[in-house]
Amino acid sequence: MTRSRFAAALLALAALGASPPPAAGADPAAPRRITMTLRDVPVGDVFEMLSRNEKVNVLVGKGVAGSVSVSLHNVTTEEAVRTVAEAAGYVAELRGDTFLVLERKDAGLDGLSGNTLLRTFKVQYSDAKTVAVILTKHISRYGKITPLPERNLIVVEDQPAFLARIEQLLEQIDLPPARSSSRPRSWRSASTTTRASVWTGPR
Question: pLDDT, tens digit, for every residue of 121-158?
Fold first, then answer.
């Protein structure tokens, strides 16, 4: 993108993104709304423009590249950042007061403790320690699973998306023992009656 093209896009964003003066009685704390239309602009430049104009922190991850065309009308800053990321094929995650733009395969792998939740799951039919070992392979890099075998519980701390995955996996793992379809046969001993014939001679 040439310097003049970037400057023009920046001015367009500044002009279109400016919100009109709030109406009488409007909430002054309401988020600023953004309207912008950009065609074939490097995605990194778009995030830089949003960061400058909206005074937000946007961190673009390694490997994020390419151009994007967007047309947004009356959206919040968060909606704008997430929409631009989606349009370019990436994901925008909010970490505290910073947006982190990542490739989809890296989404959720570097979650911070502030984004994690704590949930307790009941293990009904299986061993809690064994279930914890299996589920540990499916949590994020910063997730943690603690088994409580004496209470048949596992405590999971992770991001909401990973907690939902753990819940689904637990439903598939913690199943009641299979019942045998065959019934024991009832055996009856057949008694054999032996009759003795006594020879009495000709009649």
Answer: 999 999 999 999 999 999 887 788 999 999 999 999 88
Where do the domains of the chain lie? 3-18+31-106, 113-173
Q: CATH 3.30.559.10: does it fit domain 113-173?
A: no
pTM score of the predicted model: 0.47
Helices 3-17, 43-54: inter-axial angle, 10-degree rounding: 40
**CA-to-CA distance for 45 and 57, rounded, in angstroms?**
14
Q: Residue 100 CA to chain centroid, in angstroms?
A: 16
Q: Distance between CA 101 and CA 58 in Å, rounded?
A: 7
Q: Give dist(CA 132, CA 139) in Å, integer.
A: 11
CATH number of 3-18+31-106: 3.55.50.30
Tell the burial category of 3 from Cβ atoms under 10 Å away from its Cβ (0-12, 13-18, 19+): exposed
